[in-house]
UniProtKB/TrEMBL annotation, chain A:
A molecular function GO annotation: hydrolase activity, acting on carbon-nitrogen (but not peptide) bonds
Organism: Candidatus Lumbricidiphila eiseniae
Domain of life: Bacteria
Keyword Transmembrane assigned: no
GO terms for cellular component: extracellular region
Protein name from the UniProt record: NodB homology domain-containing protein
Entry keyword set: Signal
Regions crossing the membrane: none
InterPro entries hit by this protein: Glyco_hydro/deAcase_b/a-brl, NODB_dom, Polysacch_Deacetylase
NodB homology domain: residues covered: 129-215
N-terminal signal peptide: none
GO biological processes: carbohydrate metabolic process
Key word Nucleotide-binding present: no
TrEMBL record, chain B:
Domain of life per record: Bacteria
Protein name: Uncharacterized protein
Record lineage: Bacteria, Bacillati, Actinomycetota, Actinomycetes, Micrococcales
Length: 226, 121
């Protein structure tokens, strides 16, 4: 188990074992032009990272493209991740990675604002002007054809609030099944609320590994676990 | 222009040139997250075994430079932290990423590291 620490981080950097990531949340249409400028800058300076690219980096230890890799990550499963961010990724040739709180998508649009406020999903003004806030399952399926989609638990939960066996089943296992049923693909990664690392709770580590996830994303590192 | 630099505040480049690492941390944390991403540099850990050594010289040199900056920023921001204080590690890595890989950010190179060292005294 690799627990986060300054010593670990320093050694990973020294060995050349690192990846650039940019984390996004709601990407409202009103800020589309600014997001476009930012993503265009990243696309100019960095190479896209597909799931195969990440696999190869872990297998060889070497990044194989001319420019360094960069992963833009769009969290939570907002509708505007599908309607604003993903088309910009397509335009600039970036591969987006989309961690999705699957129960947010499942929630009746009438109650999605309340779901968000109940589960630490931040909203901007444009999100609250009425209508659906989360992606639809159809949008999730469409995204998965060109980008990487994976569970961010079901209800946007942290490992420290996922306590019972039933909680673990719902947040870790059923979220994966729900996503895979829609995309027809393996959900290759998992991330807890707050980006907690693998190695902090053996019980939760076992659950994530046993569910068959290949990677766990965290705020200090990307763990390859299967 | 550096990502996240508000028009009425010093740019990250200016703060970096001044060796103001605390100012970089404040600017990094004081951004409009509906309009700007959060750059991060994440380590890679293989829980099944060992990741092979990176034979690519540029990759190793860049990682070495990042590690050096990580140490300098840690000394400036988190001398109080335990080695395994995850929040402290994240804070330093956020400042590192914000400063050194947003579009147009300062390249990670020796003259900049020297400038930081000089300015942080």
């Amino acid at each position: 188990m690799t627990r986060p620490s300054s010593t670990v981080q320093r050694e990973q950097l020294r060995r050349g074992h690192f990846m650039r990531v940019v984390n996004y949340h709601s990407t409202p249409r009103g800020a589309r032009d600014e997001l476009a400028r930012e993503l265009a800058g990243f696309a100019r300076d960095y190479a896209p990272v597909t799931l195969d690219d990440l696999d190869r980096l872990f297998e060889t230890g070497t990044w194989h493209k001319d420019k360094p890799g960069l992963i833009p990550v769009f969290y939570e499963g907002y509708r505007n991740s599908a309607t604003v961010a993903a088309p910009l990724c397509d335009q600039f040739g970036l591969t987006g990675w989309f961690p999705i709180a699957t129960s947010f998508v499942e929630c009746d649009p009438e109650y999605q604002e309340a779901f968000a406020r109940a589960h630490w999903i931040s909203l901007v003004e444009e999100d609250t002007t009425g209508g659906r806030i989360a992606m639809s399952w159809e949008e999730v399926a469409e995204l998965s054809r060109r980008h990487v989609v994976f569970p961010h638990t079901a209800h946007h939960e942290g490992f420290d609030t996922t306590l019972s066996d039933g909680d673990i089943q719902r947040e870790v296992v059923e979220s994966k099944r729900a996503l895979e049923a829609v995309t027809g693909q393996e959900a290759p990664a998992f991330v807890w609320l707050h980006g907690s690392s693998y190695g902090l709770s053996p019980r939760h580590d076992d659950a994530v590994r046993s569910a068959g996830y290949r990677y766990q994303f965290a705020n200090t590192m990307i763990h390859r676990i299967n | 222009m550096l990502t996240g630099a508000h028009e009425d505040k010093p740019s990250a480049a200016r703060l970096l040139a001044d060796g103001d690492i605390v100012g970089l941390m404040r600017t990094c944390h004081d951004r409009r997250l509906e309009r700007e991403g959060i750059p991060m540099v994440l380590g890679l850990a293989d829980e099944r075994g060992v990741i092979p050594s990176a034979p690519d010289r540029a990759q190793l040199e860049e990682g070495g430079a990042f590690a050096e900056v990580f140490d300098r920023y840690s000394a400036a921001l988190i001398p109080w932290a335990r080695d395994d204080d995850e929040g402290a590690v994240i804070t330093v890595m956020q400042v590192l990423a914000y400063t050194h890989f947003a579009p147009g950010a300062a390249l990670i190179e020796e003259p900049i590291a020297e400038r930081i060292e000089g300015g942080a005294q």
